[in-house]
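Narrative of activities, Objective 1.

The group set out to show that a structural description can be obtained from nothing but a protein's sequence at a throughput compatible with the screening campaign. Below is one input-output pair from the validation batch, recorded exactly as produced.
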Amino acid sequence: MEKKQKKKNLSRDHILESALKVIGAEGMSGLTHRSVAAKANVAHSTVSYYFRTIDEIASNAFKKIRQENRNFMDEQNASLADTGKKRTPRKLMEFAAEISKNEYDSGYILQAEQELLLYSTKNEQLRAENKEHVTKGCAVFDDFLRECGYKNPNGLLIHAFWSGYEKSALEMPEIYDFSDVADQAMQIIKTFR
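Output recorded for this entry:
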């Protein structure tokens, strides 16, 4: 039974990864059950078995990106705790810059995330999920900054900055450098004192 569940999860994950590749390359307009099946090299019916609608595919693909980002941040924080190093906003910004760079270097993840964000403006379920994710993330960031001694943290401002930065980096990669983003974010964070 457990082996069957693992196989099912692997198939589902493979389909979502393929959906992200389709979205990253062709945008939401290219996302169909058939395009995902072709990219995943599975039968059309397999995609339909796991996801009945395009909205389900989009929603789950978006959740996958968010969960992977969260996992990366948790790993980074755990590694800091293991080494006994102090957690600082600078380290957090460096981790976030690393996530953005990894997504950008993937060739499709950051583009897919931006496409899904745009799509969420037209999709109530995806918009609600994104709002919940952003709200939780900003609250965690605010708590983190309070622990670091900042009196007036504004996680929503940092989120807006970061989202704008990632979008601009996609549009004009020759101008934007991921190595500078932590410094720019830290300038904003310093105003929270």
